[in-house]
Design a protein that fits this description.
5 helices, twelve-stranded mixed beta sheet, alpha+beta, globular
Length: 252
C-alpha cells in the first residue's frame, strides 16, 4: 500500500536524521533494523555522513539526501536506475498521501470490527492515526553497553503510555556543527505528519548519539561506528545509471 510505504519512509528518515544531526565531522556507521510487521526480516544498513550530505545504503537500495541541493535521490543498484525528488516534491507527495489516508479512514468505518481494529493499531503506530498526540521523553537511570559505548536509556511516552525507547551515548565526540541544517530538513518533513512533528520536538530532550532506537514497530541498532572523511563521490549518482520518473504515491 503506497500510503504505508511513504509513512515508513518518512519515519525512517526522521529517525536517521535525529541520529545524524549531532555529528559535525564525517562519519560512517552500520546498523541492523528489525520491523515487527511483515516477515520480521532483518535489514543491514550502512550510513555515510558528511557536511550537508547523508547516504543510507540497504541491500541494492540507496537513498541520498543532499541538503546543499535540497534533493533526495533514490538509487536501485540492481536495475542501475535512480529517481530524483526535491524537498518540495516530497512534501507534496506526503500531502497527497494524507488525502488518501482520509479517504481510507472513511472506508474503514464499513470494515468488520476486528479488521478495523487491526488497521487502526497499524496506522496509529506509523503516525497515521490521530492528528496530534502528547509526546514526551524521559531520561532513566538504566545503562547498558552498545557497540562498545556506555549508553543511557530514554523512554518516549505518547498520551501517557510508553511508545518507544532510545539508548544514547556521549562517547561519540565531535558533535554539534551541522545541527541547524539537519533540523531544518527534519522540520520540513515532520510538518506534513503531525505525530512526527510532535516526536521531533520531544527528541530535542535526548542527549548524545543514538545507538539503539525502538519506535512504531521499527527497531534500529548501531553495530559499528567510524569517524572518517567521506569522499564526495559517495553522495553522487553512479556513472551510467539511468534516471527514471518518480512514481506518484497517488497511482494506487
Amino acid at each position: 500500500m503506497k500510503i504505508l510505504a511513504i509513512k515508513i519512509f518518512v519515519l525512517t528518515v526522521l529517525i536517521a536524521i535525529a541520529v545524524s544531526s549531532a555529528v559535525s565531522q564525517g562519519l560512517y556507521w552500520e546498523s541492523i533494523t528489525k520491523m515487527s510487521m511483515g516477515d520480521n526480516k532483518e535489514m543491514q544498513s550502512s550510513m555515510y555522513y558528511a557536511p550537508k550530505m547523508f547516504k543510507s545504503s540497504t541491500g541494492n537500495n540507496i537513498t541520498i539526501f543532499r541538503l546543499d541541493k535540497k534533493m533526495i535521490y533514490m538509487i536501485d543498484n540492481q536495475k542501475k536506475e535512480y529517481t530524483a525528488m526535491t524537498f518540495s516534491e516530497m512534501e507534496a507527495s506526503v500531502k497527497q498521501a494524507n488525502k488518501q489516508l482520509e479517504a481510507l479512514q472513511e472506508q474503514m468505518k464499513n470494515m468488520p470490527a476486528e479488521q478495523r481494529k487491526q488497521m487502526e493499531k497499524m496506522m496509529g503506530g506509523m503516525g497515521m492515526g490521530a492528528k496530534s498526540s502528547k509526546i514526551d521523553v524521559k531520561k532513566t537511570g538504566e545503562k547498558k553497553t552498545i557497540c562498545g559505548y556506555s549508553c543511557v536509556k530514554y523512554v518516549i511516552n505518547e498520551n501517557g503510555k510508553e511508545a518507544g525507547v532510545v539508548w544514547t551515548t556521549t562517547g561519540v565526540t565531535g558533535i554539534g556543527g551541522l545541527e541547524k541544517d539537519m533540523k531544518e530538513f527534519s522540520q520540513r518533513m515532520a510538518a506534513q505528519m503531525p505525530k512526527a512533528k510532535e516526536m521531533m520536538e520531544a527528541f530535542k530532550k535526548i542527549e548524545g548519539f543514538q545507538l539503539e532506537t525502538t519506535i512504531s514497530g521499527i527497531s534500529t541498532t548501531v553495530t559499528k561506528i567510524e569517524k572518517k572523511s567521506i569522499p564526495a563521490g559517495e553522495f553522487e549518482i553512479p556513472a551510467g545509471y539511468k534516471k527514471v520518473v518518480q512514481q506518484k504515491f497517488s497511482d494506487e
